[in-house]
Each structure stands twice: as structure tokens, then as C-alpha cells.
Amino acid sequence: MTAAAESTVTLDGRFARELSELAVPWQAEEAPQPKLLVLNEELAGELGLDAEYLRSTEGVRLLLGNHVPEGSTPVAQAYAGHQFGGYSPLLGDGRALLLGEVTGTDGRLRDIHLKGSGRTPFARAGDGRAVVGPMLREYLVSEAMHALGIPSTRSLAVVATGRPVRRDTMLPGAVLTRVASSHLRVGSFQYARATENMDLLRRLADHAISRHYPEAAQADNPYLALFGRVVATQAELVARWMLVGFIHGVMNTDNMTISGETIDYGPCAFMDAFNPAAVFSSIDVGGRYAYANQPVIAEWNLARLAEAMLPLFNEDQEQAVAPAVEALGMFRRQYSDAWFAGMKTKLGLTEAPAGTTEAEEASELVDSLVALLKDGPVDYTLFFRNLSHAARGNNRPARGMVLDLAGFDAWVERWHDLKPDADLMDRVNPAYIPRNHLVEEALAAATEGDLDPFTRLLEVVRAPFDERPGLERYTEGASEDFGSYQTFCGT
Ligand code: AMP
Ligand code: MG
């Protein structure tokens, strides 16, 4: 490619510069036979990157970390984390690299990061690699989340490496090029705290404030303000997951961002039938990260963040605890407010002033609907979409989905009294989500070399609220023989 095209890619190294103790300079493993499987041209545009260039031989090598633009230094990031409740003092990017940061056309700084780029000093027993299926899953689900309006890391590309990778069987290797507003995690703070280097911990917090919550710098206690902002954004984020039936699957503290973006799509899934106990991850034997547990786990993870940040809140440990507990104590209310407000919108009810009988009636309607949904196998996504027909006067599609018909009829009558707005419902209740059976079908075909089902599904979930004729198949749940769905961590 021409020098002019390359000059469009300039990577900063701000993280590596400001937090060198958390950054190990490293090189990506060379891919024997790279093949670009999918490129996010829209995102490339937002980042000010030339899609044409990214499709070129050199551009694809850049997406793999094999071509490093002059002046940039890829690094593996160090972090710690609680995995399924157990603490690991050293995790870090075992198979990932931060290539550097780019400033998008909107002026925002974003990380360009690789997953599956080979072993690093943090690899432990891992092979440093990733395979086509799971990398395409992350691409698809993260882009679906973004289209749903839920904060998420984005996916710029998946490149097949041409190298077979050993899992249960031999599978085609791939690298995901990921974009995030940063890769700061709860686990980053846990790691910094464990080093007992107070200067590092403070620089990490300052870096987070500057990148994500600049207004916190003006607070009386900026670090407490930072913590409070993370609590609030995570409460909002997890409420958004719950409202669309998303199950992250591995809410370890190293998979929870400071920015409030959803990160690390491993064994994640969207719930089909409404079931608060739903677990999809094959490695989550105890159901720790079940659907209904997600808010509790988020709060637990934030308590770990508070512990890590404690010396920043106040030099006197005793004095630090009370304000931290108070800030963390906001989580439940913030979560519940966000969830109730979201549920009311899903029911087409515009927010009534708190304390009014309308507001109370709306909250009761939410509670009794959840009871109805729990009662029988009801497809969560399709039910809300069918309910907008009921708002327009046709109860049949939603009514046909529940077991307790008398209960439903009584509920609908009360709901109609509040004059639900069907158009509002259609703007917040997706018609299309990445349904598990469709994702599996698409990934299985892609692993065999046929990208068509993946490309079609991606197109569908990119416009989740815009119901189009001919796509009925994408609105339906799995047939019964799909069985109980599990995703596997053999990523
Ligand atoms: P994850 O479950 O993807 O959040 O990863 C948890 C930790 O395991 C992180 O430190 C990863 O870098 C590391 N890891 C996961 N898979 C591999 C692999 N194949 N090779 C090396 N490290 C890995
Ligand atoms: Mg992770």
C-alpha cells in the first residue's frame, strides 16, 4: 500500500506511557495465511481509519498486529481478578495486546486491541490463541449490543490466521480486533493495589478520571467521585442487560470495565424463555452468573473495586471505609430505578411523577407481569414485541404465549387504562436479538468456511427495532430439539 494510506493510521501509546507498570511491550505472533473474514467499515469510518487500506495486505497485517505502524508499541496489559469468586493476583492479557489508542472523528480516544494474537508473559498454560467461532461470536454479539443502545466494546474485524488451533478438535485460528473506550477493568485496580505502589494506584485512577469521568476531577474527593461514577454506570449497564435478557456469563472482576462498557463476550447468551435462573455457561457450574444474579454480582465486584481504591479515598483507613460503603450503597437504588424505568418504557408507559397513583400502578403492573412471565415458558423478546400489538388493540399474539389466560386478561385491562404507547414500545423492544440457535448455526457454518449465515444474521441484528418482512425466522425462538443451550469457554 502507499505511504499516504498508511499515514492515516496513527496509534498513540498513552496507556503504556502513563501506566508503564501495567504494560509489557510485546509482539503479536505472525499469522501464516491471513484472511479477513469481516471488517466493520462503519466503525472504521468513526475511527477515521481508511477501510480500503484495512482490506489491503498491509492493512490486514495491521489488524493482526503483524504490521506495527511506526512509533507504536503494542503492550500486554497486567491485571488481577476474582474469577468465580476466587482471587488471582496475576491474570493479564494472556492472548491479547493493546496496539494503542486512536482519536476518532468525534475526538474520543479509543483503544485498538487484539484478542488471539499469541502467547504473552501472562499466558500461563494457555496457547495464546483464539478460534474463528468464538471471535465471530464476540463480533456479532458486541455489535448487536451496540445496536441495542447498550454500552459495549466494539468489533473492528476478525481475521483468520490460517493456523489450526487445538481445542477439543483442531479449529481454525483467528484474531479479533476490538475497539473500546479503554480496557481499564476492576481487575486493573486490584492489580495496582496489590503492588502496594500508591503512586501507581493514583496514576491509574487519574488516568481513568481523565479518560472517562473528567468531571470527577472537580469533586472534593475526586477518587470517591470516580468510584461513585463507576457504581452508577455499572448499575445502569446491568439494568440494560436485564431489560433485554442478556446474560454475560463470566462476570469476573477482570471482565468488568471502569468505563461502563460491556466487555469480553465469552459464553454469553440472550435468554429465550424468561427464566431468572437461566445459566448458559458450561463452566458456571454453581450458577454464580445466572441471569437473576447479575445485579448482585455487579455489586459484589464493585465492593472489590472499593477495597482496591480504599487508600485513595482517605489516608486514614478508618475514615475511608464509611464513604466507600455509602457510595456502594447507592448501587441498589440506582439499579432498581434504572430497571423499573426501563420496564415501564418496555410497557409503553411514559414516566409518571413519583408518588402519583399512575406511577404506583405502573410499578405494580411491572411486578405482576414478571410473575406472569415466570409462570410459564414465555419467549421474553417476542412477548414484548407482541405486546405492542395488544397496545394497538390485538391481544391475541401476546395472549397466546402465556399459561394463565385469566391473569393475562386482567393484567391487560389494567395496562390499557394507562394508555400504553405502542410506537414507544417498538423503539425499545427489539424484534431481533442474536438468538442462540441462530448464532450457533452461523458460527458452525463460518467454521466450515461459509460466512453467509453470519453475514445475514449480522445485518439483521444491526437494526434490531426495525421489523422487516421476510425475517420472521429471526424473531422466533429455537425449536424444542435445540435443547438446553450452553456456550463453552473453550474460546
Ligand atoms: P477470559 O475468560 O477471556 O476473561 O480470560 C481470563 C484470563 O485467561 C485472561 O488473563 C486471559 O488473557 C487468559 N486466557 C484465556 N484464554 C487464553 C489462551 N488461550 N491463552 C492464554 N491466555 C488465555
Ligand atoms: Mg477477560
Return the domain count: 3
Bound molecules: adenosine monophosphate, magnesium ion
Low-pLDDT regions: none
Measured by DSSP, the beta-strand proportion falls in 5-15%
Number of strands: 11
Class of secondary structure makeup: alpha+beta
Number of helices: 18
- Could you report the average pLDDT, rounded to the nearest whole number? 95
Distance between the termini: 33 Å
Strand order, largest beta sheet: 2-8-9-7-6
Description:
By secondary structure, the chain is α+β, with helices and mostly antiparallel strands. The chain has three domains: 3-180, no CATH class; 184-429, no CATH class; 436-479, no CATH class. It has 18 helices and eleven strands. It has helices at residues 3-6, 14-18, 41-46, 51-55, 57-63, 132-147, 186-194, 198-212, 222-244, 294-313, 317-346, 357-375, 380-391, 396-399, 405-417, 422-428, 436-447, 452-461; strands at 23-25, 35-39, 75-77, 81-83, 86-88, 96-103, 109-115, 154-166, 170-180, 246-247, 269-270. The strands form four sheets. It has a five-stranded antiparallel sheet with strand order 2-8-9-7-6. Strand 6 (96-103) and strand 7 form a beta hairpin. Helix 7 packs parallel to helix 10 (294-313). The longest helix is centred in the last third of the chain and has 30 residues, at 317-346. The chain starts with a helix and ends in a 30-residue tail after the last helix. The mean pLDDT is 95. The chain binds adenosine monophosphate (AMP) and magnesium ion. Residues 254-255, 264 line the site of magnesium ion. Adenosine monophosphate is lined by residues 91-96, 122-123, 126-129, 250, 254-255, 264, 266.
